[in-house]
Specification:
Order of helices and strands: HEEEEHEHEHEEHHH
Strand content: 5-15%
Number of strands: 8
Shape: globular
CATH class: Alpha Beta
Helix content: 25-40%
CATH superfamily: Class II aldolase/adducin N-terminal domain
Number of helices: 7
Number of domains: 1
Strand order of the largest sheet: 4-3-2-1-5-8-7-6
CATH architecture: 3-Layer(aba) Sandwich
Length: about 240
């Protein structure tokens, strides 16, 4: 199945999640087979990306269906040992339907530095400044529920948080919004590093940055047409992602 330049096929949540994983891999969320994404259905069950394959090769049929107790309902792949993070997230945040965790290339740099990078351009300003957290305490992998709950508590009501010496944690009420936040965050991290290595720069004026971020939140989908462009690009590269 392919999409034209103006239309998209109707995608199931599993197909959308697979496309999301492929896109994020291309945008720096590419730490081998590590990292995991969850999506909450209306019945409070979850689908999650599998553990044993990378985001660049995942397909819709690879998704694993779970309940909020972590019990596998359907799926032929294994579940990440860090599933506790997603179970804790979806139990604590009924407003959130998508959770993304990875050790992204540039986000992890700032997680190691220990601070949130400044916004230097429009794309960097597309996420809400006052909804970016930093959990400056490494508590190990999130394989156990106690560690997972600490990370979710640190997320609080933010859109995303840096996990010190670990990676990033991005959430959203929809796949489109989660995609927007994740790629905007990684862009911000990359550009901020490059600007500072070059000797520093001028951060975006606070007023313009705030207005840009709020506009994207009001839309509920992020920057117009970016998500649909991403879907078309992934499908052009490998239509089998929908299988």
């Amino acid at each position: 199945m392919t999409a034209t330049r103006t239309e998209l096929p109707d995608l199931s949540p599993s197909q959308e999640l697979a496309v999301l994983a492929r896109s994020l891999f291309m945008h720096g969320y590419d730490d081998h087979n590590l990292g995991h994404i969850s999506y909450r259905h209306a019945d409070d069950t979850l689908i999650v990306t599998p553990f044993e394959i990378g985001w660049d090769e995942v397909r819709a049929s690879d998704m694993v269906h779970l309940d909020l107790g972590g019990n596998v309902l359907d799926g032929c792949r294994s579940v990440t040992p860090a599933i506790s993070l997603h179970l804790a997230l979806h139990r604590a945040r009924p407003d959130i339907n998508v959770g993304i965790h990875n050790h992204s290339r540039w986000g992890t740099v700032w997680a190691a530095i220990g601070r949130v990078p400044p916004a230097y351009d429009q794309m960097s300003s597309a996420i809400r400044e006052n909804h970016i957290g930093f959990f400056d305490e490494y508590v190990g992998a999130v394989n156990d529920m106690a560690s997972a709950e600490m990370n979710v508590e640190a997320l609080a009501d933010n859109d995303m948080t840096f996990l010190g010496n670990h990676g990033v944690f991005v959430v959203g009420r929809s796949i489109q919004l989660a995609h927007h936040r994740a790629i905007s965050l990684e862009h911000r991290c990359r550009l901020a590093w490059q600007v500072q290595v070059a000797g520093g720069g001028r951060p975006m004026p606070e007023r313009f940055a705030r207005d840009l971020a709020e506009l994207n939140e009001v839309r509920g989908t992020g920057i117009p047409h970016m998500y649909t462009y991403m879907v078309r690009k992934v499908l052009r590269l490998d239509p089998l992602v929908l299988e």
